[in-house]
Every structure is written in structure tokens, then in C-alpha cells.
Amino acid sequence: MKIEIQNLNVYYGEKQVIQDLSLQIPRNEILSIIGPANSGVTTLLRSLNRLVDLTPGCRVEGSILLDGESIFDEEVSVTELRRKVGMVFEIPAPLPMSIFDNIAYGPRLKGTKNRQKLMDVAEESLRLAALWDETKDRLKMPAFKLSGGQQQRLCIARVLALRPEVIMLDRSCSGLDPISTAKIEDSLVQLKKQFTVVLAPHNVQQAGRVSDRVAFMLMGKLIEDGKNSEVFSSPKDQRTNDYITGRFG
Amino acid sequence: MRMKPQTSEKIAKTLIWTAALSVLVVLVAILVYILLKGLPHISWSFLTEIPRSMGREGGIASTIVGTLLVSFVAIIIAVPFGIGTAFYLAEYTRETMVTRFIRFSAESLAAIPSIVYGLFGLSFFVISLHIGLSILAGGLTLAFMILPTIIRTSEEAILAVPQSYRETSFSLGGTKWQTIRKSVLPSAIQGIANGIILSLGRCVAETAAVFLTAGMTLHMATSILAPTRTMAVHFYLLAMEGISMDNAYGTAALLIILVFIINVGANAFVNKAMAKGK
Questions:
Q1: Could you read off the pLDDT of A92-132 as tens digits, one per residue?
Q2: Which residues pair with A10 in a beta bridge?
Q3: pLDDT average, residue stretch B235-264
Q4: Cβ separation of B171 and A162 shorter than 8 Å?
Q5: Whole-structure pTM value
Q6: Which residues of chain B lie closer than 8 angstroms to A142, CB-CB?
Q7: Does B168 reach chain A within 8 Å, measured CB to CB?
Q8: Residue A130, by phi and psi: left (phi above 0), alpha (psi -120 to 50) or beta?
Q9: For residue B169, which residues of chain A lie inside 8 Å, CB to CB?
Q10: Do B172 and A89 count as a contact with CB atoms less than 8 A apart?
């Protein structure tokens, strides 16, 4: 198992957004976490790289193990953790700098200064994110000038540049056109050979298309999880069935 | 009776245009008047000679130097403290009693008339600290005066940086300081620079706070512990004492040009620095 979540509870102030959640995430697979809005999916992802630390009044109980070691340990460097567990947000968030500088941002924070090395990383990451052909001649262009789909693939490349172990995508295709979405999904299937992918798909169909496993969350609770084929063909819980057949959500 | 939407639209448009146009007319009128009155008296000797017989004759060289030095000292002191406080308020604390108190203090400081700063500078820096009437005392006093502006404008510029820049930087393994330096500061620098330029303009134009702390001597300053007279103070005295209206207008025109040069120069500098960062 790459990640083991045990009895996780997350609170924002008085409000509990994740309730007693336990989930195992195997390595080199794509896990889709599905659920209607406000189910706690985003909070769960943000717990895995401890971005929740930044939210005032947020409290986390329970344990999350990455390769068997707790991410909440005193000795764990949170910046190191976030390099290992990369995240792509719902809205493409290029920084106001060139395409190249966006990708070099993470490696530079880590202390990589060698231009050639950064260039190699940029090319490799852009290729993995299926963006190299479209941008190789204009790496110095401001990232804002890319289209929405390209920006989101740039954000994926930017995460890949850190050579992470886990990549999380939080509804990262929700605002994209079908072609961009297809490109991203293709690269995800490629990426799982090297990485563990945790995906919060923007709809159930995407989960069906790309994932190996699927987990269904509702109101902060994990309802069920399992192999894609099993959950989609014979869900154990009536609520899962209702959700994936489109009766609510 | 209700007005037709088309009619109210027309009236509103006319009123708004009139307001904007009147402001423009007044502004241009003042500028043109002072420049017309002042420019004929500006010559090379006016710029390079020290005032003679209280400013009736000679140039204003020592007051130009005095203005630049006092403003420079004020900016050098106020900018690091101002920007530091702004980052503290915007990035390093949550809204607490302490931050509210700091912000309230800064806003109160901004509302104090400059003559009060002058009086404070005179009794504290000049007399209690034995600095004496000097460029340093004047610069320190002005630094206190412009601090609230710098804090306010910098904090607003920092808060205007999209939260997504911060989250992105953190999620890529950035520390707080790396995030501020590489993501927040480059986006906020334009707004911060605008605040500094605004403050510099106030320093250059200030009279009350300066003549009480930097003095009014017409001698060329030899060190920052020496007293000096700034251009604004100079033409205030020339006009008030009826010494020379011509030279007062000449100084005023030059002050306008100086402020203009500072604005344009600083903007060009910031734009260049920004272009480099990209």
C-alpha cells in the first residue's frame, strides 16, 4: 500500500467534514474518489499533503501513513511531503511567469539551479503531461497565454517536475474541453506506471474511464471502495448505486 | 413622475463627464499657471548657485540637495519597516487583537496633521535625542509620517495577490518565506512601489514637519547631521516673507518637475525590474 488512512477525522472549527474515514491506496494504480459536492473529497486530498495545515481552525485526527510512515510525525518535513505528494487544483493556477519558470518553480525551491538540468526536467515533465509538442518553441511565453486545457496540463507538468510519488488531481478537468480532458486522461494512464494517482473526477464517467479503483464518499464518510469493475457493476450500498446511476449528486 | 431610463442615463452621463472634466481643467490650470510663472526664472545658475541675501538672489542649489537628502533618509528608514509590517499583517498573523491594534495605530498615524509630526520631531529627535536640527532629524520625522501610507498600500498590494499563488507554491514544497519571496512579492511589487512613490512625493512636498526638524539654513549641507532647508520650505518662506515671488515660483515649478521625474523614473524602474523577473 502506498497510502493508508486510518480513522481520519477532520474538523473546520466545530464542523466535522470527514468522519472516521479509513482507506487504503495501492501504489501504481489510479484511485478515483467520487462523491457529490461537500462530501469532503477535496478536504481528504488536502489532508494527504497537509495543505489543510494552512486553513485556519482546521483540526485533523487519526493517522495517514505514506509508505508505512505517519505524515503527521514531528520529524516529517512538510515541504518534503508536499514534494512527494503533488497536487493539481480544480482551477488551473499558473504562476505569473513563463512556462519554463512555472515548471522550474518547484525544482528551484529545492535548490536546483543548473539551467541544463532544469531544461531536461522541463522537457521530460512536459512530455509526460502531453504538452511538449505544443510548447517546445515558446517556453519563455507567459503561462497565462496558454488555453485553459494547456494551463492545466502545465500544472500537471509542474507537479511532475518534482518527481513526486503520488499525484492528486482535484476535479482538475472540470472546466476543460473534451479534447484536453482526453489528453489528460491518456497521460494519467501513462503516469500510473511510475506514480500513484489519486483522482477526484469531475464526473462519474471519468472515474469509469480511467481508474483502477473507486471510492465513494458522502457527507464526509466513506460509503464503499473497491475495484472499478466491482463498484460500477455491483455496488454493495444502495447510495453508491443511486449516485453512479445518476439518481442524485 | 418617473423619469425615463434614457433621460436618467443622459443626465448621469453628463454629470459624471462634467465632474471628470472640471477636475482635469483645475489640475491643468494649476500646473500651467505655476510653470508659466516659474519656468522663466529657472536657469543653470538658479540650479547650481547657493541662495544669496535670503533667497532674493542666487540659486537654490542647497535646497535641492536638502530636499533630496531629507527624502532619501525618510524613504530608506520607512520602506523596510513599512513593508515588513505589511507582510507581518498580511501573511504572518491571523486577525487578532494585536493586528487590529497595529492597523488601528497605523490608520491613526495617517490622520495626524504633519505639523504635529514636526512638533514631535522637534521635541523628540532634535531636543531629547540631541540630534539637533538636521537632515537626519527631518528624515526620521518624515519616515514616521509616511509609514502608515507605506504599510497601508503594501498590505493592500499583498492581499490582492490571488490565494491560488500561495497554495500553488506551498503545494510545490515551498516554505512560507520562499512562497512570499517568489510568488507573493513579485506580484505585489507594483502596488508596493506605488505606495513608496506616493510617499516620496509627500516627503518632497512637505513643509511643516520639515522646517521644525531639519531647520531653515541656506548653507549647503555637509553631512546628514547638518541642518538644511528643503525646496518646499524655501518657497514657503520666499512667498510668506515677501522676499521674492519670482524665485518662489521658480522653486515651485522645479518642485513639480522633480516630483514628475520621480514618478516617471520610479515607474520605469519598477517596470524594468518586473520584466526581468518574468
A1: 999 999 999 999 999 999 988 999 999 999 999 999 888 99
A2: A18, A60
A3: 90
A4: no
A5: 0.84
A6: 278
A7: yes
A8: left
A9: 95, 105, 109
A10: no
